[in-house]
């Protein structure tokens, strides 16, 4: 029977869905992650302390515990450094406890384990972008199949599509973090893709971006992310009041937020905007000013995000480059229609003007007219 190792340093809803599928099918050999919390254990008790509440998001189904291998030191260092404001320790790529360092550390740990586990009937390793290079190299040496999950479109396509944003919105450049990646990191991304035996993506848009890869790639399969449980008792009461708009996501121009704020500026007082998401930097003055004009919530638990979706009329998701856009399906599951662009999973799941709206990415006018 097929046996698979899956690794993800920080995990997320989509990774948990893959884990559940592999576990239910009896295919899971090991799950490697940085921090995993299980009901009743020591880390679970620690997560009740306010300074460590962040790690409560790493709670997993108890059935996964026998399969889970953790490498917590680097991730704990990253979380504590962030809490203490030690930015030099979490600096992009170069920081001792940067996200990149956390990913590399787990990747190397998995790679070191593969020779031994290959003798235990392991057939495949399932890994994610930026965390697969070392484990895939070791897998090839031990005749283990490499399954690659690419959660966002190809980096070269991203740079091509987004480079004009710096010209059009130069004051928002600080929010475009993807342009900071070093040549070494970008080469590792390409090497991971080249080593993969199967590639999984979540949208037709992401699959299309891989046409820009300079070499022939392994088969690509589009598997859309799912919907949360759909509510059945949504009550709509628009009435004589402003249209309540919601944005959820990272506050970067990759998400098209400069276009969003400009589109809404001339629509007030007929609309009200709530923004849920963290700033990637404090050095973008137009972002700071825009957030001051609207209802800004930096972070809320996932269940509360769904409640906010129920309380709003429309979700805005004008992203310029997206692997999927999970907030689209989350909002739809709560009965909230979505305005999104042609560079998300929108075209795969939305029929324009039937169950949502699709607009041209980067067009402030089209977004404004649609609202």
Structure at a glance:
The protein is α/β, with parallel strands linked by helices.
Q: Helix share of residues?
A: 25-40%
- Give the C-alpha Rg: 21 Å
Q: What would you call the structural class?
A: alpha/beta
> Runs with pLDDT <50, length 5+?
none
Order of helices and strands: EHEHEHHEHEHHEHEEHEHEHEHEHEH
Which descriptor suits the 3D outline? globular
| Mean pLDDT across all amino acids | 92
- Report, as a whole number of angstroms, the end-to-end distance: 52 Å
Work out the helix count.
14
Number of strands: 13
Please describe the biggest sheet, giving its number of strands, its sense, and whether it closes into a barrel: 7 strands, parallel
Topology, pairings included?
Layout: E1 4-7, H1 13-24, E2 28-33, H2 42-46, E3 68-70, H3 73-83, H4 99-118, E4 124-128, H5 133-141, E5 145-149, H6 155-168, H7 183-195, E6 198-201, H8 204-209, E7 220-222, E8 243-248, H9 257-265, E9 271-276, H10 285-293, E10 295-297, H11 302-310, E11 314-317, H12 326-333, E12 338-341, H13 346-349, E13 357-359, H14 364-370
Helix pairs in contact: 4-5, 5-7, 9-14
